[in-house]
Amino acid sequence: MPQVDSASFLTLHYRLSGPDGRAFINTFDGPPATLSLGMGELSPAIEQRLLGLEEGTRTTFELAAGEAFGERQPEMVQWVARKLLNELGDPLEQYTAGDVVQFPTPDGQGQYAGTVVEVRTDGAVCFDFNHPLAGQPVSFEVQLIGVL
Fold first, then answer.
1. Predicted structure pTM score
2. Which helix (H) or strand (E) segment is 85 a member of?
3. What contacts 140, CB < 8 A, 6 or more positions away?
4. Residue-by-residue DSSP string for 125-138
5. CA–CA gap between residue 148 and residue 3 (Å, rounded)
6. Tens digit of pLDDT per residue, the chain (148 long)?
7. Region at 129 (left for phi over 0; alpha for psi -120 to 50; beta for the rest)
């Protein structure tokens, strides 16, 4: 049976859950995911746990607080002026605590996300750019359907 290595292309189902057991991502209820290891689609700690597993394996990994997505970093909670938000997106957009907003990377080649924490009366928005599971223990359940 093929085994996962650092350059494998995978077809898999997976469920990523936080400490409360609630699924953050779950592909078991739909089509499987496909991804290439080493491309940043999974955290390095999760990829490391997949190495050596055989096609057909179904298992669950428990990762300690901060292991999967790093520790929470207070400096990643930042206020963004409404003027800048208008330039980056829809000037009529209304933001509410809990919304997840996509931002372009400075080079325009990718995106990153921030979660709205608070909105001031002047329109400025406080975003948390930490991964939602940063600093928390996570559970990663995987079923490897195909390994190339």
1. 0.80
2. helix 82-88
3. 14, 15, 16, 17, 46, 49, 60, 61, 63, 68
4. EEEE-S-TTTTS-E
5. 8
6. 999 999 999 999 999 999 999 999 999 999 999 999 999 899 999 999 999 999 999 999 999 999 999 999 999 999 999 999 998 888 999 999 999 999 888 888 888 899 999 999 999 999 999 999 999 999 999 999 999 9
7. alpha
